[in-house]
Each structure stands twice: as structure tokens, then as C-alpha cells.
Amino acid sequence: MRNLCVLSDRSRDIELPGKSAGEHTKLCTDSDTGWLYCSREPCLLACISGSDGQVLWSKDVGAELQQGATVSSLASVPELEALCITASTGELLLLSANGQHLEEVGAISGGIVAAEWSPEGEVLALISGHAQLLLMNKDWEVLAEAELLQTVNQPVPARPLTAEKVPADVRLAPGDGSIAWRGDARYLATNTRIAPGAPRVVRIWDREAGALHAVAGEGRLSDPGSGGARVLLFERNGLQHGGFDLPTPGEVTGLHWSPDSELLAVIWMRSNWHWYLKQEHRYLCATHVAVAWADTPPGAPARLHVLADQGGNRTLERTLTLGFDVDCSARGTAAVVDGARVLLTPLGLAIVPPPLAAVAVALAAPAACVALRDCGGAEVLAAATADGGLCLAPCAREDFWDEEADATDYDHTGFDAAHGTDIEGEEVPVLPALRVQLPGPLADGRPVRALVWAGERTLLAVAAPQPHESAAGLGDCVIILALDWGAGGPNGAAAWADVEEELGVEGRVLRAAAAPGGGALLQLDSGDLLTWSKGAGLARCGAGACFGTACPIMRATPAAALTAPGGGVLPPAVGLTARGSLLAGGLTLVEGATSLAVRAEGPGGAFLLFITRDSQLHTRPFSALAAGAAPEAVPPGNGRYPHRGRERPMGEGKCENLYSDMHAAMRGRGADNGIGAHTRAVEEGARLNRLDLNVLVDHAWPAFLGAAREFVAALGDDQALCDLLAALRPGSVTAPGGLRSVPRAPPSAEDGMRHLLLSVDVERLYRAALGMHDLALAYMVVSHSRRDPGEYLAELARFAAAPEGPLRAHALEAHLGHWPAALRALVAAGDAHADAALQLAKDKGLLRELMAAQPEGCPRRAAAAGALGEVLAAASRPEDAAVALLAAGRPEDALAQYCLAGEWRMALALAGRLGYPPARLRETAQELVDGLAAMGRLGDAAAVAATYLGDVDGAVALLAAAREWRESMRVAYAYGRGDLVETSLAPAAAEAAAAALEAARADEARVAKYLARYAEGGAGEEAALAAHLLALAPAPRRLTEAAQLCELLVLLGHAADAALLQAALSALVAAQGGAAAHMRAHPPPSAQQSEGGPATAKAEAGVQQAEPVAWKWDVLRPVKPP
After folding, report:
1. DSSP states along 36-100
2. Burial of 312 (C-beta count, 10 Å sphere; 0-12/13-18/19+)
3. Which residue, 469, 581, 628, 669, is CA-closest to 9?
4. How far apart are CA 259 and CA 42, in angstroms?
5. Measured distance CA(252)–CA(232) in Å, rounded
6. Nearest-angstrom CA–CA distance, 434 and 383
7. Using an 8 Å Cβ cutoff, are 733 and 698 in contact?
8. Burial code of 1023-1053, b = ≥16 C-beta within 10 A, e = fewer?
């Protein structure tokens, strides 16, 4: 019984480059940035800022496409930080989010008719012009490919169908196909026709298998003769399950599900397989309208973006934030919007299960928002309509709407034709609404988002600003309407409304509610509260009364509870945030609430009621909140119930106490038969609390029979008497132990299942039953749900066909995606299924789990270890792969992986353990030398060459190339090759010294140049110069190599050259250290905000880098001149 409420409505006029693409206009959103992307003709793309409507960039991609191409789909892929574009000529393009880089990632032969990403953004489904269905991942690999126009003889045919007459050469054109994914991305549907005018066929495909799952019946989505269109809904077995007709003529150009599958734009909502038209937004000057849903977090309000082309470059950009709430009067009459009718159900009199209702109020146009109020003792419905009108529907007596409909002589033939009075096969009484005469369109054509009764003859309307008003920075508008319905009152033949006041609001009004004492409460999107009252206008509430955060659901605090007897004061409203925080002003009452209600009056006073995520109903008296009691509410049946000014334990449940209350009230003032002047009040209390009305007679049965006449007179209401007579049945509600003395059978499993299905999702229960491996329980879930059992029967039959035991458990766990459990079941099935278990472990990354499930020494364990080694090797983890292969008993393969990893010690040790002959050992050593040298590990390569190959010349050359001067000399003399010091090391040292000297002098010059520019303070470049100066600090490795080089030069008799090199490096260290000290004393502006900023810290680190390295030889230091 929820209605769709517009929490925010922002619109603005923007100018887009290029011409409108009409029905080819595509629109999508970026969930990370909030940007909008749209396509224009011919192949122009534009990016619009979601915050201010500015066009951030535009790009023509036509140059990358073939002649005559159009954009067939547009989607933002946050993981790729790009826009995915498909063209009718077959190109697949990726455009970076900033519009700068365009890349063609693929091409589809025959062109692309339709494309759609899965809800989680992992798989792209495409229909090609050659009637092929392709599934691709984000790496553009084809996961599955299938013929689109397959025959109807499939595993799960919806019904016997005649075969499609498919021509030999099929060529689909744009508009001949579309794709829709199911919300969980397990299935997708294609809707295709083989030629314009041909019937469309819906096919359902399994994503995992990439195969056809079912085929739906042939049929047209619109009937040209009707002037309108019909939307059809299909289950995944292909059966049609409901649908609805659009109320106005036109062509359906697109259907867009919201991310949670609750809403279908343009905008319809489903409940109990009945489709409610919740909102209609008209764009009279638009040539085409494109919509896209924003990807909002679960539980957050939905957000819909609209682009309406208005000719030329002018486009209306509109963003609607949508939520759900109930419209219910204080008496309990629920109003449900369903297009141009409002379904009313007085819940205080009878509970009518949705989508049925007690009466349907006929409006002139679809309702935008409604409001209910008691006026002069009777309820009145007010409705703002999509065409800018205002309608009223009064009830003559309290909330007896069905009586009002029966008493009205209304010819609703036209209404039946347009909207229907038949709901799910049941005829609903129709009550015509009275159209209010206004001086002009309601709110001057602004979109009206909320209506509130602010007095008996006063309506308050909240309207969103027009685009030009938004551009001027204006907020929402509040319009006060004064109603006049003449001498006949609300039930008269005419009504007028004048604008009494028009007020601007600084900001956006999120929710509005009628204030108990008259006037209205307005909540801004910041959580602040405003009050409006006649004569006082708008006033802001104090900080303690405001929520402090947005509450999409808000209820006014009852008047009787605003001031408690103890002097405590409650805030004027309670609210519920999107995250489930229940607030009273700034006070958080409870977390995890899902819905909220207020009972303004009745036995026990005003009560706050809410439901939590565990489907528990909680109640709390407002008096306890005002008295400062603990904010946690009391669940029914587990706490205390307020009873005649005091509290007592609930005992056996709330109903027992209420029945006792009724007994005491009926027996009041000493009357043995229980008849008193307060009989009417007791009857009303029983009805309001949903008690069995038998309590009115059972409390004194059979003595009650002697006072029946007095009871009827005291009751004083024919309808109440009829309700009692209809409720009478054998047994007594006063019997010990509960409700009735008539024995009742204990609840069955089916009863429990039906009760559980009221609050738990069917799919969740079904999967839980499969997880228990109980097929009978799974079938019970399906059979007691509102879903078609045929959707699941083929699946359950397949599970039942598997042998009971491990194989059936494997099938069930695999279906549920519980792969570790599926693997354990397959292992338990025995050796006959060892290969299947190994393949499953490979596919799902469960090889270690497979090893753990096998005993030590088992061949299957070794096979799993070997497979793990191969997987690790393919993942470029050779060292891990080698250990796994050793565990698998494959030392040769392990040795190869050790070689790839450069672990020469383990490789050569393993070669020795395998008993390699000398020739093969040398071959392995040579491979290691080559591999280590290629990795840049020259020292390790030299060690292997000298030790295992006896190649001292090669080893010394490798060490010299690695600048390991000490080690190179040690190796040369250790192997008796001192000649290599003169013939190999000396030339290498001379070349290295010359290069080091040149590099030191060049770096010193750079330090001086950058420091001079830093001191000049060039605008905007201080930070970059500081980074350059820090990077010029000699690294410890460089200084260590230089020290060893100087040492070798002294050994070779070139002390002067060594001193020259050390002096150059000393000058570089000193210059860089001085520059760092200068930066520390004069940090760049970015680091001046706080002492020790980024540049200062880096400078200190740069200075400290050189200090710990002891590298300058004392003998080579210059002598200071006298």
C-alpha cells in the first residue's frame, strides 16, 4: 500500500552540441562521478555534470565508425574508467571518462542491433545483425556465442508454439531486438523480430551456459488498433505473467528497470502481480525523452535522470529522487495511487488485501500526490494530478467510503474504458472526484511534489522550481490554497480554490506532514524542520527539534504527546532515515528500523510503532519518550503493556490483557450483564485493536442473552451490530489458555511456511531449502509462494534424478554456487569421480582444498599438488610452483621452475639430488648463468660461472659489470688468475671512473641550477624544483661503489685519479646537502602551512641519506691550504 513520493525534483535548461538523435538518443550515468553521458546525431557524445548541469565535454566518434553508423548502446563501466560505445555498424569503442582517449577494442560482423551490460557490470550481451547472441567479459573475450533464432523445442518450452518462419539469410536492423537482464544477472532475455511488422518472440537465456533456457509466446508489444501500448511481463520459463496497458496513446521507445527492480520507468510499480501507475510526468514540448536510473546504494532512494529534447540544442535535464511512503489518515484509511484512480481502504473497518480496495476514486488524470484529512468529522481526499489540476473526494460519514460510493449515481463508462474498475477480476465501487476550479494550473505549472491539509479548508502544496528558477538559485515553492465549496460543503457540486499565499523556501523540501493542531511541518533535505501556520507563515524550528539528517519518512508527533504530564517536551516529528535510524528530533531512538507509524489516539494514549529488520513489530508510548525513558522500544509479547495508568507484565501475550480490559470495561459499575453507557466505546476499542468481537458477548455468557435489547440500544450503531453478528461463532474467547475453548490443531509445516513467506523472500527460502538438501522442503516453499511452480519444477526434477547421497549434494551445492561444499561432496562420491573433482578444483581455485580432503600419500593428493603447481607456474609464481611440484613428486618440473625463479642454489642442489651427470649439470649451470644475467643478478651469475663452470674469466667480467670491485679481485686471485686484474679489471675500472666523474660533475651543476631557480621563487614550480633537488642526492649504493672503485684505483697505482673522483663526489654531496638545508629554511608555499611540511620532511630525509655511508677514504682527502 505504498505510494511513490518525489523527495527531490531538480530541472534545468541546458544546451547540448549537435542535433537531437530522437529515438536513437542514449543516456547513461557514471555511478562514481554522477556524470551523465548522452548521444546525439550523427555520432556525437556529450558529458553533463550531474551537480550543475554544465556540459563538461563533447566528442564526435563518427570518424572511427563506418558510413551511416549510429550509436546502438552507451554504458559507463567504472572498473574500466571508460564509456563503452557500440555502433550499429559493429564497432566496439572505449572512450575514457574525460573524453580524451578513444580506442576500438573490437568489431562484430554484421553490426550490432542491441547491447546491454549485466547489472554487476561483468558481462556484455550483444545481438548482431547476423542474429547471433554473444556474451563478452571486460577483457573483450567471447564467453559464449549462440544462434539467436533457435527453434522452440527447448528444455523448458513455455507452451507448444509454431516454429518461427526464419529466412535463410537473416539480417536484423536496429529496432529489431532488445536485451534485458534479470536483477541477479543469472538470466537474460532477448526480444526480437525477424523483420518490421513481424511478431516479436521473447527468449530467455542462461548466462552460465550461454544456452537457450526457454521461449515465450509470439505476440505484439503494442496493438496499432488500440492507439495505445501494452507492456507484457514474462517469467524465466517463458510464461507470460501479467502486464499492463499504458493509459495514453503513444509508442514505447524504452523500458528501464530501477537497480532494485522495484520501479519501471515510465513509471510503473508491481505489487502482488498488479501494476500500479505511480507517477506520470508529461513533457508536452519535447520531441523525445530519454531516461536512465542512477546506481544508488541498497536501501537508498532511487534516482532517475531525464533528458527531454525540446528542439534545436535546447534540452531539459531533470533529476528525480524517489522514495516510498504510505498515505494513511488518522482513522486508518489507506490511499493507494494507481494512475487516474486512487484506491481507498478504510483499515479501521475492514482489511482488504491489495491490490483490491473498498472503493476507487476516479480522477481526471493520473495522481501526482494525495492527502487525506478529517474535515468536520468525515474524511476528504485531495489529489494533485499530472495535468496540473486538483481534485477532491469527500466522504459523507467518517470513513465509510463504500457507503459513499453506493450512494453516488455515477456513470463511469468512460472511466472504465480508460482505467478500468476491475482489479484482479474483482469489481471495485467507483466514486467520482470533484475537480476544483483553479485560477490557473496548480502551482503555475510547477511540478507538485506533496499535498498537506493545513486546515479544514486549507491545502498546502510543495512544488519544485521551474528550470529558470533553479538557474537563479531559488528553492522549492510552498503554495497555500484556500478552498471554498459553497453551501453544500465538501459534498457539493462544485469547489473553488484561490492562492492565499506563495512562499519561497531556501533549499529543498524533502517531506511534508500535517501538524496536529493545524498548519504543516516541512522537512528540508538537511533534516531541518519548518512550521507553517495561518497568520505566522514559515518559521524554523530550534536545533533540538530538527533531525540533523534527511529522513525520507516523517510523521508528526500527536498533539496529546507534545507536552507530557511531567513537563517533558517532545520534538514536533519523528523520522526514519534511509539507513534505518529512527529519530525523534536529534535523539536516535533505535537503529535498524524499516518502517514507521504513529497512532495518535486510542486506548493507552499515543503510540509509536515501528518494524525492525528482523521483521519484529515494536511499540512505544509517546509518554515514555517525553518522560526521558530509555529509547529502546518494546516488542509485543516480550515487555510491558500500559494498563489503566500503570504497567503490568504482558503475561501470555498482548491479546490476553486486552481481553481482560474489555471484560473489566463491560462489567463496570456493578452491572452483572455488562451492559453500560460505555458499551459503544468498548466496541470501538475492540475493533481498533483487532480483537475478536466475540469478547463483547462471551464475558457474561449466557447471562448476556437476557440483556440483548439493552446491549443493542447502548451500542447505537447498525454497522457495529452487523459486524458483531458476522463475527459470532461457537466457543469462548474467555476460555483459559488463549482465544477459544474450541480445540485447535497444532500449526502444520505448511502453516509455518505460509507465515514465513510473509516476511522472507521466496528465493532466499528456496535456496536455504536446497542448501539443506531437502527437495521436499524446497517444493513446499515454491508451492506456497505466489510464484509459478513450473518455473522451478524442471530444476527440482533434475536434482531428484541425481542419486541420493554425495552426487545429489554435489549437484545442489554447485547450483547454489557453494563450490567448496560441492567439491567435498564430489570427493566423497569416490574414485570414479576423481577426475571431475580435479577439474572442478582447477576451475574454481580450490586445489589446496582438494589436497586437504585427501589423505597423505594418496595419488589423488599428488595429482592435486601437481595441478596447483601448474596453476602457480601459469600465474608467474615459479618459486611457489616449484614447492608444489616437489610435493607432487615431480622434481624435474620443480627444478625447471627454480631456474625460472633464479633460485640457483635450490636448482643446483636438486640437480645433485637427482644425480645429474657432469655434462647435464654444466648444461643446467649454463642456463642459470644466462637467466641470472638476464635478470640483472650479475653477482649470482658470476658465482655459478666460477663454481660450476670453472669460467673465471666470465665470472670476473660479470662482477666488473656489476661494479662489485672487491669481489671481482677476490675471485680472480682465489682461482689463481691474478692476471685478470690487469687485463680485465683495470680497463673496466678506468671506464667506470671516467663515467662516475662525469656524472658527479653534471649532478653538481644541476644542483646549482635548480637551487638558483628555487631561490628566485618561480610561480608554481617550487614543489617540482624541490623534488628535483632531492632526487639528486647520491644514493648509498652509488657511494659504496665509488668507494670500492677508488680503492681499486689506488691498488692499481692511480691514486691521483681516485682522489679526483672522491673530490667530485664530495662536492656533489656538499652541494646537495646545502640545497636541502636551504629548502628546510625556506620551504615552498605548499609546505608553509605547518611546520615540517612535505618538502621539509623530504629535504631532511635527503640529507640523512648520505650521512650514514662511510665512503670517503682519509688518505684521499684534500689538504686545506694554509
Report:
1. EEEEEBTTEEEEE-TTT--EEEEEE-GGGS-TT--EEEEEEEGGGTEEEEEETTSEEEEEETTS-
2. exposed
3. 469
4. 30
5. 12
6. 10
7. yes
8. eebbebbbebbbeeebbebbbbbbbbbbbbe
**β pairing state of 496-504 and 477-484:** antiparallel
Distance (Å, rounded) from C-alpha 451 to C-alpha 459?
A: 7
pLDDT for residue 154 is more than 80: no
pLDDT: is 1079 or 1121 the higher one? 1079
Averaged pLDDT for residues 1057-1085: 86
Only one residue has cell 575514457, namely: 96
pLDDT for the residue 651: 32
- Report, as an integer, the average pLDDT of 557-583: 83
Report the alpha-carbon distance of residue 481 to residue 499 in Å, rounded: 5
Higher model confidence: residue 987 or residue 747? 987
**DSSP code for 157:** -
Burial class (CB in 10 A: 0-12, 13-18, 19+), 394: buried
Number of H helices, E strands in the chain: 31, 54
Q: Are strands 359-362 and 430-432 parallel, antiparallel or unpaired?
A: parallel
**What are the Cα distances from residue 839, in Å, to 142, 144, 799?**
21, 20, 21
Residue 639 above 80 pLDDT? no
Classify residue 199 by its DSSP letter. Answer: P
Arithmetic mean of pLDDT, 88-112: 91
Residue 1022 has pLDDT above 70, yes or no: yes
Give CA–CA dist 652/636, Å, rounded.
11
Instruction: List own/partner pairs for 986-995 with CB under 8 A and 24 or more apart.
Output: 986/1052, 988/957, 988/960, 988/961, 989/960, 989/965, 989/1045, 989/1048, 989/1049, 989/1052, 990/1054, 992/963, 992/1045, 993/1045, 993/1049, 993/1057, 993/1058, 993/1061
Q: pLDDT tens for residues 500-555?
A: 999 999 889 999 999 988 899 999 999 999 999 998 899 999 888 899 899 999 99
Could you give phi then psi for residue 636, rounded to 5 degrees? -65, 140
Q: What is the dihedral of CA 1076, 1082, 1085, 1089, to 10 degrees?
A: 100
Structural element, H or E, at residue 277: strand 274-277
Predicted structure pTM score: 0.60
* CB-CB neighbours of 919 under 10 Å: 8
600-635: pLDDT as tens digits: 877 678 888 999 888 888 888 887 776 555 444 444
pLDDT higher than threshold 70 for residue 906 = yes
The rounded distance, in Å, linking the Cα atoms of 1015 and 1078 is 9
- What backbone torsions phi and psi does residue 940 show, to the nearest 5 degrees? -65, -40
Instruction: Return the SS3 of 996.
Output: helix
Confidence band, pLDDT 50/70/90 cuts, at residue 235: low
| pLDDT, averaged across the chain | 80
